[in-house]
Structures are given as structure tokens and as C-alpha cells.
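User: My collaborator and I are trying to settle a disagreement about how two of our proteins should look. Neither of us wants to argue from intuition anymore, so we agreed to look at predicted structures for both before our next call. Could you fold the first one, then the second, and keep them clearly separated?

Assistant: That sounds like a sensible way to settle it. I'll keep them separate. The first protein:
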Amino acid sequence: MPSSFRFDPNASPVASTDRAERMIDPGFGRVFTDHMAVIRFSDADGWHDPHVTARAPLQIDPASSVLHYAQEIFEGLKAYRLEDGGTALFRPDANARRFQDSARRLAMPELPENLFIESIERLVDADRDWIPGGEGALYLRPFMFASEVFLGVKPAAEYLYMVIASSVGAYWKGGMRPITVWVSREHTRAAAGGTGAAKCGGNYAASLIAQKAAIAEGCDQVVFLDAIDRRWVEELGGMNLFFVLDDGTLVTPPLTGTILPGITRDSLITLARADGLTVREEPYAIDQWRADAQSGRLVEAFACGTAAVVTPVGNVKDAEGDFAIGGGGTGQITQRLHQALNAIQRGTAPDPHNWLHRLG
């Protein structure tokens, strides 16, 4: 490992036989690797003490700032085992820049892009054996929180940045399948001027009550409308949305500061346009969604994100009337875009946009 990162190997790593058993059907976010990456920050010393060490519980003071004022951000990306035997990250530079954007919004220090990427490289290097084969991947979770011990409303002066890793399979049980979503009429995810475009834990915490209502209605996910008019479709609890019209045009809500600028979203827009499809980033109303689905003008809808990649939306449940999209299954364009993205991520197709960050 480069000298910039100290490596303290785990003295008691998981035995290879136990690791192999855990990776047979890992699910999502429950099987963790042996190590974690850590970098500290203080106003006095800046970024310092970068190291990879054994994954272990944290001991923090009960007056740590994050526990009271929620200065916390995170990212999500994956390392893939390639067909040629190598490994690669997918667009880590984009995650690094979004991490900086989130930090800026929450008055936190911005981690330099090279340190962000190197922390992930060093962790993957240490835990390469945890990358599943087949359709699995190593999910990486960089995060940062305010660790200064004080009670008082101000930006903290000390922070802890960490990366942990998890062997994962399909996000949805049973693999890629059409989901049913619930339209939240009572709760919104974000408003103009808020933290909607930042990837901070508070956004997800605020969405959970609506997600709980969705589950109670027999749905997989919640879809949020805008905070002002309660009319314009924004995003799911953790994924961006696309709508496919009968002429092949794709429509997706614009990035106006209230929804997360998804890296998978951006990648799919690029792939769709390269494939000759028209993509419009424009507002799309819930009433229009229903009318287009009922008339047949809307033939497909899908959600996307790092965890689930591409997920078809088959049915929408709403207090003002339920409706199905197309035949309620997976549409051709949804499937085509998913296959194109997956092929690049796993190194089985050309990478014209240089998205893969190879690790060897």
C-alpha cells in the first residue's frame, strides 16, 4: 500500500470457509468485510492519519456533535469483479465530487478527491476476496460525521471520515422485478433551499415515515411529490425516476436542488442519448403520470440508483386512484438500458466514457 495510508491488518479475519459461506447469498447490506478505512479531520491539523484497519465498533462520546445536530453525509458505490479477472470501481470520481457537494451544504470540510478515491482503493485492496462473483458486487459506503465533543449549535471542528464495505447480491429479493410504489400525499422529501440535493442521513430519516406508510399499503417504495404544489413527481425514497413514452422518449424530473443528482441517473441519460433516444429533463405531474398510463402513452417507468441499479415500476397506488404502467412488467427500454449499464460495470462491453476505474 502507498505510504500515505497506514495498513493495520485485522489480526482475526473471517476464515475463508466462513467468508465463502456468507457470500453464497449475501442479500444487501448485512455481510461486512474485515477492514475499514479511516481519515481524521480537525480545524487545527486538517486531514490527517489516513489508515486501513480492522473493522470494529466505534466508541464515541455521548456529546459528539453528530448525535445532536446531525452533521453527517455518505456515499454509495460498488467494486465489481470483471470478466478478465480484474476488479474495478464505477465512476468513483463522480462520487467524490458529490461527497464534496454534500459536505459543502452541511458546513463540513471537503475531502480532496484523491483522498476519497485512495481510501476506497486501499480498502478494496485489503478486502478483495470479499467481492462476490456472478451478479454480486462489493458495496462501498464512505461516510463522514461530526465527532467534536460539545453542545452548541455551530459547525463542528472535528470530523471522522470512514469507508466500510459489504458483499452484496440483488437489492430486491428475487432479483430485478417490477415494484409497486405508493404516492405520498402527506409527506414531502425536500423543499427548495433545503438539503434535497445532498446525500445526508437526515433526508433518509425524514422519508422513513412515508416509506412505512408505503409498506402498510403493500408497496415496495414511496414516491414523493414537490413540497409546494404537491403535484410534481420528484423521486422515490432512495432512487431517481424515469418515464418512457410510446415514441421512445424518456422523461425524468430535473435537478432543481430538491432531488439527489444520481450517478446512475446521469449514466443512464448518457447511455440513452448515445443509443439515439431522446431524454428530456422536465417536470412531470402525478396527474399526467396517471393519464399517460391509462391512455397508453406511458409504456414504461423505472427507478434507478447505485444499490438497485435499474428497477422497473409496474404499479402505482395512490389515495386518488391506482394505476398500472404498460402490462405491469419490465419494458424493453428499461431492460436494454439495464443491460447496457451492467455490461460496462462488469467489463463485458466497451467503456467509451471511461467510467471504469480499474484496480488491477
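The second protein, kept apart from the first:
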Amino acid sequence: MEQSKEGELDQFDMKILDTVAENGRISVTELAEKVGLSKTPVTARFRRLIEDGFILGFRAVLNTRKLGLDHVAFAEVKLTDTREDALQEFNRAVRRIREVEECHMIAGRFDYLLKVRTQNIRRYREVLGEKISSLPHVASTSTSVVMQSVKEL
């Protein structure tokens, strides 16, 4: 069986990635069955995919509803300064806000899109007013509240 070259992915590598993305706790035996290879080459490929940086890590997906964190809002953030130093300062500061689940720099009418998860709208208002609005170089924000999450990771 031909192994893919370093940095290149073949159909078996892609099947491994698809499978572990769906279930990171799958056993090597089950993974080998799904991929259609024996355990030894699947294990070698899996390790290579980790070493080559195609797999960055594993994490638990928490039930946010049971944790009382089912309020999601998206905050659009416009900055006063978009020079590199200002962007880096904003990036460092936003990473420290626990309630910000995702932060993306956007090309468009605003500079960043933040996914914010809190217990309720009252707590979101506190996070927006006390944390997000006081981030470096924030000029303005606009919020969209999620009514229903149809697909999430």
C-alpha cells in the first residue's frame, strides 16, 4: 500500500480526519475498520497527521444548555484604528474574555465578528458594556442575538 508523501493527504488520510473530527474518542480498531486499513498503518498515519499539524488537538464538546450557557450573540466590532499594532493589541485583549467563544477579523463594514456565549441577555449586556466595549480601539459595536442554533461544532 502506498503511503502519501509528507504534507500530502490521500483518501485514507482524509477518511481518518473525517472520522476523528466526528468522534475524537474512537478506538484505533474502530478507526481502522472505518478507514479500511489494518491497525498498524492507521496508527502510523494518525500519528503523522498529528505530527504534521493536520490534527491540532482534542477537546470535549460541552452541553451548553445543561451548563446554563445557551444564550448566544454575535457582536460586530468596528475599531478606531486598524494599523497592525492596534489589531494585535485588540487580538491579545479579546482572547482574555472568557465569554468570547470565537473572534474573527472580517473584511466588510466592520472589523471583527465575535461569538459570545452567556447565561442570558442580561449577562450579555454586562459583558458587552464592561468587557467588549472597553477593548482597545473599539469605536462601536452592533449585536445580533441567536434565536436558534441550527448547526454548531
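Some points you might bring to the call about the second protein. Strands lie at 71-79, 100-105, 112-118, 138-145. The chain has a mean pLDDT of 94.
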